[in-house]
Amino acid sequence: MAVSTTSASELTAEQVVKILVKPLEEAAKFLAAGPRIFDTASPIRIPKLGAPTTVSWVGENEQIPEASPDFDEIELLPSTMKSLKTLTRYSNELARQSVIALDAALKDRLVTDVAAKLDSQLFSASGDGTTTPQGLFAWSGTQTLAVGGALTLDHLHDAEALALGANVDPASMRWVMTSRELIKLRKIKDTDGRYIVQSDVTAAGGYTLLGHNVIVSNRVPDTTGGTPTARAALVDFSKVAVARDLAPSVKVLDQTFGDFDQLALRVVCRYDAKPLNPEAVVKLTGITI
C-alpha cells in the first residue's frame, strides 16, 4: 500500500494561498479632485489680485481718474505645519518566513492609512492652518447656504446660483457629499412615483447632479452634538491650492533597530491646502440626517 496524504497527513505542509485579502476602503479623493498642487519644502506665498478697479467714462479734455489696484497673498505650508508620520517594526524572522511579500504588504497598508488620514483632514471642518491643514469646511471667506432641513434638488440649484453669481466656471464645479446624501437625492420621485434624478446608462462610472460630477466621500464630517447635521459642498477645485512638501514616502530602516534584529518601515507626508478664491466654494450646511 502506497503512503498517501491521508495516511501521512503530518508530512504534508499546510497550504497557504499567497495573497493577502485587503479590507474595503475608500480611496483618497481630495488630491484626485484636481486642485493646483505646488511642490515646495518651504513656506509658499501666492500673490492675489484684489477687487476690480473703478473705470469711468471720461470726456474730452477731462482728467482721467487714477485707479489703485489692491493686492493680497495666500500663505501655505508654514514652518510650523506638522507632518503625518507612522512607523512599523517587524522581525527579520517574520520577513523571511512570511508566505507573502511582507514588506510590500506593510508598505501598502501604511501608505493607504496615511493617505486616508490626509484625505479625512482635507475634507474636514477642523485644522488651524498653522500646525494642521485646514479642512474644506473650515475655510473662511467661502459662500454658505443654510439648508436647515432635508437636502433637496432646489437647494442644489440655490448653491449653483451662488457659485454662478460669483462668476465661477460651471464646467469646473463638483459636488462633494457623502453617499448618504447622494442616495437620498437619487430617491426623490415625482408625483407619478418616477425617479427625478436619472443616471446616465452610457456613462463609464461615477455620478452627476445638475451636470456636475459628484465626489462621493464618507469622510465629509457631520456636525457634533445632540442633533448632528450633515454637510455638502459645491467646489471648483481648480481654485484650490495644495502645497506638497512630501507625498506619502516610504523609507526602509534596516539598521536603526539592528540590535533587535528588526526592520522598520516609515511613511511620512506633509501637505497644506487653502482656496485661491474662497467664493468658488459653496458650503451647504444644516442638512437633516
Overview of this structure, please?
- The structure is a single chain.
- With 289 residues, the chain is of the alpha/beta class.
- The protein has a domain at 81-198 and 206-288: phage-related protein like fold (Alpha-Beta Complex), CATH 3.90.1690.
- The protein has helices at residues 92-97, 102-122, 153-165, 179-186, and strands at 36-39, 44-49, 71-76, 84-91, 143-149, 173-177, 208-209, 212-216, 229-236, 240-253, 262-275, 281-288.
- It is flat and about 105 Å long.
- InterPro entries: Phage_capsid, Phage_capsid-like_C.
- Residues 21-285 form the Phage capsid-like C-terminal domain.
- This is Phage capsid-like C-terminal domain-containing protein.
- It is found in: Virion.
CATH topology of the domain at 81-198 and 206-288: phage-related protein like fold
Helical run tally = 4
Spans of at least 5 consecutive residues whose pLDDT stays below 50 are none
What is the 3D form?
flat
**Proportion of residues in β-strands:** 25-35%
What radius of gyration results from the CA coordinates?
A: 26 Å
Indicate the CATH architecture of the domain at 81-198 and 206-288: Alpha-Beta Complex
| Helix/strand structural class | alpha/beta
Mean pLDDT: 91
